[in-house]
Amino acid sequence: MMHNRSFAHLLLPVVLVLAACGNANAPDLARTLQIGNFAEPGTLDPNKLDGAWEGRIADALFMGLTTNLANGDIVPGMATSWTTSPDGLTWTFKLRDAQWSDGTPVSAADFVSGMQRLMTSVPASSSVSVYFFVENAEAVRSGKMPANALGVRALDPKTVEFKLNRPAPYLPRLLSWANAAPAPRHIIASYGEAWIKPEHMVGNGPYLLKEWKAGDFVHLVKNPKFFDAATVCLNDLYFYPTKDVIAAERAVRSGKLDINFDFSGSRLAEINKNMPGYAHVTQGQRTSYINFNMRRPEFKDLRVRQALSMAVDRDFIALQVLADGSEPAYSIVPKGIKSYAAGTVTLASKGQSQDIRVAKAKALLEAAGYGPNKPLVLTFAHRNSGEVPKIAPVLQANWQSIAPWVKITLQGNDNAIHYASLQRGDYQFADASWGTITSDAIEHLEIIRTGGGSNDGAFSDPVYDKLLDKAARTADIKQREETFLEAEARALDQLGITPVIFDSMRQLVNPRVTGYQVNGTGDNPFRLMCTKEAQAAK
Questions:
Q1: What total number of domains does the chain contain?
Q2: Of the residues 11, 21, 315, 469, which has the fewest C-beta atoms closer than 10 A?
Q3: At 46, phi and psi to the nearest 5?
Q4: Among residues of the chain, what percentage have pLDDT more than 70?
């Protein structure tokens, strides 16, 4: 297990001491950012990563066919242009002249290999099912077809073709995510799984992996082979696992961190008073939810899932415990999703008082056979990061308020351990969250599709799956929305998961940093950032 030393004391030795000693290899502090990054990455292999904290680093190391601007807009990346067939089922991308950091040309075959690796990785990335609209993707993922049957082909060294089994107008946005990055086939062939070590890794993005000291920091340096290197301002990026948001806040205030991608919402007023211009808060397109493991006998009974969902005091959690811009979630799909009337369908318990909901929850559990002689004893697994440690005890109290014979134990872990347990199915019920990549309703609704990569709880409902399939085949935007609403209503009725809050996005950014722009997707490309000092020196 990784050690839990506070990250804050590491910043001074890593960077500032080198500079103070006049070390010739010391970073130029005007062109260096110190970044608090939530958690230790489990991997930096782009086709295997799972968390936003991993994707944030991988996005600096690799670039997909498309990329994003500071405001979240999608623009050409490794592709210079693309075309779509009239039926929306064939997409053709033309590549620019670009190199891997060792000088090897980036080719269409590298993108094909990256997508094949994404579909065949074990364990699967939780986002893999989002790509099931690609021809044969689901069959490749399940092992029914070989990787080369995937509908992604290199027509020539500079042309990549995607064949889809249903229209996916959000494909360009999806291809900006690190999961869809090209794979350096020549390096992977030589080093296998060890290719992600700093001494072996090559990338095609604006930065290179210089050093990765597990549990301490990841150090990236500017990639001179990046096709647009002349526009990249920053030379060095240091990422630190900062699960302690209070320690991270102190580090930002003292200047040891320039950015931290979270802070305690209860501290907002104090931060605005003492650190004006640092705090950025916006409503993110992210849902935090409770994941029921359907392999467990307790959760095979819908009444148990209904009772535990009903007892959650979402309003209290969002508006009083957090009070940070988060909103109570009575539906799965958050606001801001394109062409979708989020919040139209909700949990049936919305609007009922907490006392009424708790009484109904008790009646449901009694009907399911639980009581003093058969207590409901469960362990709730949760992340030990961000605001989750505040939420978990409230959930525990909500559930135990149902009756004395409902006993809930909390089990907290670091993000990597927590999500690895979920992927293995080694839990009873657990907290999880999903933030959008595509800004399309299907992404949140895919969470509980049968066999989906993010369906850790193994929920399965043929009626629900058919509704998702029907919506995916529908070209008419209004009909598609209506079918998705029907699917969401079904999900809220069957409760493979139950929503808790729509998270706010909170970042602390030193005003010295330029080129940073808060947006609903959370995408903040480091290649577009700079500092006021560096700009003044130009």
A1: 2
A2: 21
A3: -60, -30
A4: 95
